[in-house]
Specification:
By secondary structure, the protein is an all-alpha fold. The chain contains 8 helices and no strands. α1 (35-59) packs antiparallel against α2 (62-83), α1 (35-59) packs parallel to α8 and α3 (96-129) packs parallel to α6. It is elongated, with a radius of gyration of 22 Å. The chain starts with 34 loop residues before the first helix and ends in a 23-residue tail after the last helix. 42% of the residues are buried.
Length: 311
């Protein structure tokens, strides 16, 4: 029995299918990507790339800044290929390669953003503890070392992303060959479910750290006056950015759970407001309240940071 499936998906009646070797019989996105959204994304991520490159130069907080620079660079590549999926004469929404490449980079980019968030937490642990091991253990959620935190969550993100990319690629191949994408979509769903779970665990650890940090600042006398306000502002930016990344991941899970052609995946406003917007805002927050303005290269409080995030 053949596993060929009838053409079931979105076809834009105003855009003829070129039927080239790299074209699917349907538009895999579930809609025709708008040129304006991709162009706006390219412009904003280009600005953020320059901004974070400047922060890298000024703060020399290499791990965090390089991760954010790489995040914006991946987003630029992803939205450039999404732009190539916009209506003619600019792009071809039926092209499978454009879909796979844009999905790869737009999915990979938040992985580097998440890694930057993980390094910020470990940097704050080092800053508040003065890199004294005994104090760091008290501050660290569940007594985990900074290296353990990074190893656990970066590994989880890498595994989840590999599974997602494999699933997305298989969806593209299945649609191009007019086969059922159900199995491929389930693979993608598994990767997203694992990522949602692992980031939820990180959020729990982050809030545990916030509670512990308040106690440490009060007990050491650093919990009074301007320094506490400065520290809380940077922590607030970290928390909001983390929640935005989690919102984006939950959207991706819900979208995929509905299956190919589901309501969320077939309406671009959901993508714009729950994929594009949260990532832009999170990157901007971490640029304005850049941890490098608060935390030195050895993980200690700078004292030169100001509450408005300027140098």
């Amino acid at each position: 029995m053949s596993d060929k499936a009838p053409i079931d998906g979105y076809v834009d009646p105003s855009i003829p299918n070129p039927n080239g070797e790299q074209d699917a019989p349907i538009i895999i996105y579930g809609y025709t990507p708008h040129l304006a959204l991709s162009a706006l994304a390219l412009a904003l991520f280009a600005i953020l790339l320059v901004f974070h490159s400047y922060r890298l130069y000024k703060t020399r907080l290499y791990a965090f800044s390089i991760l954010l620079v790489f995040t914006t660079f991946c987003e630029i590549i992803g939205y450039a290929f999404r732009l190539r999926s916009s209506p003619p004469p600019v792009g071809n929404p039926y092209n499978v390669i454009n879909f796979i490449v844009q999905y790869f980079f737009i999915v990979c980019a938040p992985v580097f953003l998440s890694a930057a968030i993980y390094t910020t937490l470990t940097s704050f642990i080092g800053a508040l503890s003065g890199d004294v091991a005994a104090v760091a253990r008290k501050l660290s959620p569940l007594g985990l070392t900074k290296r353990t935190i990074l190893a656990i969550f970066i590994t989880a993100d890498v595994v989840a992303t590999i599974v997602q990319i494999a699933g997305a690629a298989l969806i593209g191949v299945a649609q191009s060959n007019r086969k059922s994408p159900t199995t491929a979509n389930n693979i993608l769903l598994a990767g997203l479910a694992f990522q949602v779970f692992s980031f939820l665990v990180f959020l729990i650890l982050l809030f545990i750290f916030l509670q512990k940090s308040k106690k440490v600042m009060m007990s050491t006398g650093t919990g009074n006056g301007e320094r506490e306000g400065v520290m809380m502002m940077y922590m607030f930016a970290l928390v909001v950015s983390s929640l935005l990344v989690y919102l984006r991941t939950c959207f991706r899970l819900a979208e995929t759970a509905q299956g190919i052609g589901g309501y969320a995946s077939s309406h671009e406003p959901f993508f714009g407001s729950l994929e594009f917007a949260p990532i832009v805002v999170a990157i901007a927050l971490l640029g304005w309240w850049h941890p490098g303005l608060l935390v030195g290269r050895n993980g200690r409080l700078s004292g030169e940071a100001s509450t408005d995030g300027r140098t």
